[in-house]
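Q: How would the C-alpha cells look for this protein?
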Amino acid sequence: MVGRAPRAVVADDSHFMRSVISDILDEGGIEVIAQARNGVEAVEAVREHDPDVVTMDVEMPEMNGIDATARIMDVHPTPVLMLSAHTDENADVTFEALDKGAVDFFTKPGGEVSMEMSRLKDQLVEMVTSVAEVDVAGSGRQSTAQSGSGGQRSDTQRSDGTHEDGRSYVDNPTLVVGSSTGGPKMVEKTLASLPLAADLRVLVIQHMPEGFTGRFAERIDARSDYEVREATDGGRLGGGEAMIAAGDRHMVVKNYRNGRLRVKLNQDPPVNSVRPAVDVTMESAASTIDDPLVGVILTGMGEDGAEGIRAIKAAGGHTIAQDEATSAVYGMPKRAVETGCVDSVLPIDDIASGILDTITTQVT
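A: Here is the predicted structure in C-alpha cell form.
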C-alpha cells in the first residue's frame, strides 16, 4: 500500500449509508473499489478485489457483519472496521466482531445521519486509513476469552512473603493503561494475565464511545481475576480492582490515601482530540499517588498518553510501551517512546510480565 491510496470495500445494507460512507472516504483520499449490500457480497468483494480495508455494517441480511468478518479472516485476511449503531445490543455484537478478527469499530451517528457523518468525516477517514495499515494476515482470531481464569484462581502467600507465582510484590501499586485503535483485545489480554496476588489498582483509558465502555468492563471482568467495572463519578478503587474510563468522560484521580484512590469524571474539553484522554488520567495519577506507579501505552493512533508517560516518569514511576510489531497502530506507543521516558518497549505477550517485573521485590 506504500505510495498509493488505501483501497476500501464498503459493506452496508442501506444504499444511502453506502453512498454517504463511500463519498466521505473518496473525498478523504481513500479509493472505494466496491460496495456490498450484505455479508455474502462483502466476502465475495474481498476475494475479487483484494482491498486494504473493509468497513462492515453489523446488521445485514443473508450474512451479518460478524459472520462476514469471520469468513473474511478465514478465506482472505483483510483489516475490518466495524460500523456499529449506538445501542446496547450493537455494543454486544460489536465486541463479538472484534473477537472474530475485526480491528476496531466506529459508531454510526443517529439523528440526521448525513449531517452527522459529515461532521465526523475526518475521524472516519483517519480511522479507516489507520486500520488499512494493520497486518492481519496470519494473526488468526484467537479470542482472549480463554486466556484469563475468570476470577477462579486463588493465591496463597508463603511464609517467606512470596506467592504461588514465586514473586513478592511491593505494597499498594497502581497501574494506568492507555490504548486506542486495536486496543480492546490488547487490554483484555493484559489484564487477563495479571495475578490477583499483585494487588494492583488498575485504571484503563480506552478510546471508546459512551455506551460501549460498560460492556467493555463486563467483558474484561469475565476474563480477569480482577474486579473490573466502568468508572463512576466519585468511584473508589482498592487493590485487586480495575476501572474502565467511561465513554465521553475524562477520568481524573482526585485523591489517594491508605491504598485507595478516588476518581472524578468530567466533560471538560477533549485533550488530544479525545475524551476520555489518557494524558488526563496519567497526569492526575502522577501528581496524586505517592505509592508505586506504572504507566503503559498500548496500540492506538495519535499522541495521547505521551505527556502522561512524561508525568509518570517524572514522578518516579515505571513506564512501558507496546512494540511496533504487535501494535495494530504504532501511533501512541511511538509518541510515548519518542519522549525518552519509556523504560521498556515490549511485545503484547510480554506486557503483563513487564508490569509485574516493575513491582516485584523478590523472585524465588
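Residues 139-154 have pLDDT under 50 and may be disordered.

The CA atoms of residues 85 and 284 lie 33 Å apart.

Upvote if useful.
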